[in-house]
Amino acid sequence: MVKKKAECDCKSESKCGMKIQPLGDRVVVRREESEEKTAGGLYLPDSAKNKPARGVVVSIGDGRILDDGTRSPFQVHEGDRVIFLSYAGEEFKVGDSELLLMKESDILAVIL
Q1: Other CB atoms closer than 10 Å to residue 34's CB: what's the count?
Q2: What total number of domains does the chain contain?
Q3: Which residue from 106, 61, 70 is spatially nearest to 88, judged by alpha carbons?
Q4: How many Å apart are CA 92 and CA 99, to the nearest integer?
Q5: Which neighbouring-strand residues pair with 110?
Q6: Does 5 reside within a domain?
Q7: Which of 2, 33, 39, 52 is the most exposed place for a label (fewest CB within 10 A)?
Q8: Which range of residues forms the domain containing residue 48?
């Protein structure tokens, strides 16, 4: 199985060309955008918005190495919409994109 590397999706004309391949049981996730307004119709300023604990899996590693030397298969795949722990992962930027690098165990569910 060929793994796809997470690529920057810069909106600017100059592409940065940076690629990320997570190692082991790590997953790269692009967080979904936070809600602009409340259910009552009030618009929220950026400082009042909560970061959503939902996102899309961009890239996965090779899997955790088991005691017998084989690698465990991932339960998530590229393109899956997932729910993860609120403070999970390490945030980093690739070009204009903000991504999260987290362990697969930080992912709680796949949205079907």
Answers
A1: 13
A2: 1
A3: 106
A4: 6
A5: 82
A6: no
A7: 2
A8: 22-32+42-111
Kindly indicate the confidence band of residue 36, based on its pLDDT and cuts at 50, 70 and 90: low
**81 lies in a domain?**
yes
CA–CA gap between residue 77 and residue 5 (Å, rounded): 13
Distance CA 92, CA 29 (A): 11
Q: Is the per-residue pLDDT at 51 higher than 80? A: no
**Whether pLDDT at 8 is above 70:** no
Any domain includes 16: no
Name the phi and psi angles at 46, rounded to 5.
-55, -35
81-84 and 97-103 beta bridge pairing: unpaired
| ∠ Cα 61 64 66 (to 5°) | 155
Burial of 93 (0-12, 13-18, 19+ CB in 10 A): exposed
pLDDT on residue 14: 33
Confidence of residue 46 (pLDDT cuts 50, 70, 90): low
pTM value?
Answer: 0.72
